[in-house]
Amino acid sequence: MVKFDSISDRKIIYGNCTTSCTCGHHFVFGPQLIKEVLVYKYLGLELDHRLNFKLFKSRILASARGNMSRIWSMGIKNGDMSVKGAVNLWMSLVRSLLEYGCVVWGKDKWPEGEKIQFDMAKRILRCSSTTTREALLGELGWWSLHTRRDYKKLIYWYHINTLPNDRYPKRVYMVTKNTNATGSWANYIQKILVKYGVGQLWENDQVIFNIDGKGNLEAKSIKEHKNFFQRWIKSKVLDYEQKTWWNKMVVNGEHSKLRTYVTFKKTLHYEKYLNTPNNSWGRSLHTSLRTGSNNLFIDQGRRMGLEVHERICKFCTMNEVENELHFLLSCPLYNDYRDTLFRSILSASSKKWNLFSRPKFETFHLLLNGTADEYEKIVFSLFQRYLEKVFRLRESKFPPSINL
Question: On the CB side of 9, how many CA atoms lie within 13 Å of its CA?
Fold first, then answer.
């Protein structure tokens, strides 16, 4: 139990009640008197008299931050842990806390929780603090926590609909649905069904057992129906989340730091280049070039307020903007390293990928986005080792401490 005045200006003053209540703040249960309280912890959730879950969210935020710091020290900080391993720890030790019991709370967006996810994504990707949130989600294929809570609510809603009518969760749900009480859980479910384009399920409960017109792939049991619904609704939620994510990326058009990113990143999914082993620095450089936060002059100039055409490469006489394309494929400073990379890829791919003869922009996409074949992993590995070499050369010519 917590101090009552920690969550509200209200404070309960109890009387000296023993066998009967004279203060009005006790419930009678047989011969027992049970105190009325402002907050009660049930199944790990603090329920307060205002039903706003503020105290509960504050507690799980603190626990999530603590676990995030522990994960950082487990191997992410020094680069020893794989991205997959870090993601697994995030899901099991941090995100699970932020989503505990979320089927009954979490209608609001909760920016404090989202910030923890973005902070964790930056640590896992070992990228710049200026990396945009859309790029963080895009590289890891993550949904917003708000969307994930909606998805979990819909899964639970389907479960409730499959319960017998005499079960208390089903009875409470039916009462609130029939009364359409504003602010109720059932009312919110109706809103998110409409939000994800499946509002027809609200009008007729029996539709949930025949969503595809084929009995949910001819499901033979409640479990099979639930599995079908889970896959089906996940595709609907993913489609909505992906469109929202994409629209946020392109809203600023060519002036956004994601202007290059959107040319090759079209879907919200985990990127395979993150699985390259034993090269955390090369992998983070790969991420930085993809996401536009990479300390090239195109990025530095943005922070200084320079126009794009003013962010000229200082290492050659081509008079071109030092953007990702120029850095990787045009600047003569790196010609020797670049030729070695192309020859290595040609040899490792059994002469399938001859980057010497391909158009520049196609080569750019192949290096950053992958070859999508059996040679992809080795190409990523060679490319990331190349990035280490050229960034070292660049820093030896123009250390980061020197201002533009």
Answer: 0
Q: What is the DSSP string of 266-312?
A: -S--B-GGGG--S-HHHHHHHHHHHHT-S-SHHHHHHHHT--GGG-B
pLDDT in tens, 64-76: 999 999 999 998 9
Give the H or E element holding residue 1.
Answer: none
Q: Which of 85, 101, 95 is nearest to 145 (CA)?
A: 95
pLDDT for residue 4: 41
Structure tokens of 126?
């070992």
DSSP per-residue codes, 64-131: HHHHHHHHIIIIITTT-S-HHHHHHHIIIIIIHHHTTTTTSS--S--HHHHHHHHHHHHHHHT--TT-
Does the pLDDT value for residue 243 go beyond 60?
yes
Nearest to 177 by CA among 208, 197, 202, 154: 202
Q: Which residues of 120-156 are buried (b: 16+ CB within 10 A; e: fewer)?
A: bbbbbbbbbeebbbbbbbbbbebbbbbbbbbbebbeb
Helix (H, G, I), strand (E, B) or coil at 356: coil
Helix, strand, coil fractions of the chain, as percent rounded to 5: 60, 5, 35
Query: How far is Cα 127 from Cα 179, in angstroms, rounded to an integer?
Result: 50
Q: How far apart are CA 318 and CA 315, in angstroms?
A: 9
Residue pLDDT, tens place only, 31-71: 888 888 888 888 888 888 777 888 899 999 999 999 999 99
Domain segments of the chain as ranges: 4-48, 150-243, 277-397
Cα 65–chain centre separation: 16
